Amino acid sequence: MSEQARPADWKNYDDFAAGIDHNRLPTTDELIGKDFAISFKDGRKLALKFTARDKVDWQENGQSGSDWCEVINLAPNTYFIDMVFADRPKDADTVIINVSTGRVLSIYAHIRSVEEAAGDPQVEQIFRPGTLDGAEISGPEPAETRDLIGLRAHYTYSPNHVYEHTYLSSTRYAWQNLVGVQRGHGDVDLATTYKFDEGQYIFTFREYLIPVASTFFHDFNEMRSTGKFLGIEGDGSIANNPAGAFIRKASMTYYLPGQEPV
Fold it and tell me: What is the average per-residue pLDDT within 144-153?
């Protein structure tokens, strides 16, 4: 969608990103010195070794590097690993790992040019379920889910960031800002949801009006959401920003048989 299609008062990514990590879970150094080899269902192989709180050595398909990362302990045995790459500034990889079940999900985000996007959201996401090599695999395989359809929930990221989400279908969600610089603004964007384990969902969305996409781990057992945004700021620079919120379920819509959303 062209820049001219945006409402005149529409905010840029950086206008609302500041402070949106106020209620985020802290990073951890629990994985320093540990390494993982991961095999994904589509054939991708990824090796990770954590050398510092914010540094990971990686190897993938004959390539290797040492780049920035952050690690968050989301739930027992479950980690949110986010990585950006010095030689690929338009890319970021978020890897969710349960070291007990051996289950893994990678959400790889890439910022395309406007021409490449061809009217779709400019930031694309690639989803890859996988497993830890050598682990005794148990529990459900991460897979797309319809579980959140009909849910309306409020996410408090900070005293100045409160958003309402309504999960409309398997491919769309609606949002509106209740508290913050975007108050009164809202939209319907493309979304993908994976179930990771009981009460645990990876929710992602890709916006049309601004070049930004996000990945969030919704833990409905603890009513916490932990995630990040990758996008282009108003001055054209690329930013990978943290975010996190407390969740409050507001309502649920139930559909008659045969009338369920797609």
Answer: 98
The DSSP 8-state label assigned to residue 9 in this structure reads: T
Contact between 46 and 221 under an 8 Å Cβ cutoff? The reply is no
Catalogue the long-range contacts made by 247-252 (C-beta closer than 8 Å, 24 or more residues apart). Answer: 247/153, 247/154, 247/155, 247/218, 247/220, 247/223, 248/153, 248/154, 248/155, 248/156, 248/223, 249/151, 249/152, 249/153, 249/220, 250/152, 250/153, 250/154, 250/164, 251/151, 251/152, 252/150, 252/151, 252/152
Give the Cα separation of 178 and 240 in Å (integer).
24
For range 22-37, the mean pLDDT: 98
Cite the beta strand spans of the chain per DSSP E: 35-40, 45-52, 55-60, 63-75, 78-85, 88-98, 103-111, 123-132, 143-144, 151-158, 161-167, 172-179, 186-197, 200-206, 212-219, 224-232, 238-252
Of 240, 211, 229, 225, give the one whose Cα is nearest residue 12. Answer: 211
| Extents of the domains making up the chain | 7-252
Radius of gyration (Cα) for the chain, nearest Å? 18
Percent over 70 (pLDDT), the chain: 98
What is the distance between the alpha carbons of residues 120 and 117, in angstroms, rounded to a whole number? 5
Reduce the DSSP state of residue 227 to 3 states and report it.
strand
Tokens of 247: 């969740």
Q: How far apart are CA 135 and CA 103, in angstroms?
A: 9
H/E element, 17: helix 13-17
16 burial class (0-12, 13-18, 19+ CB within 10 angstroms)? buried
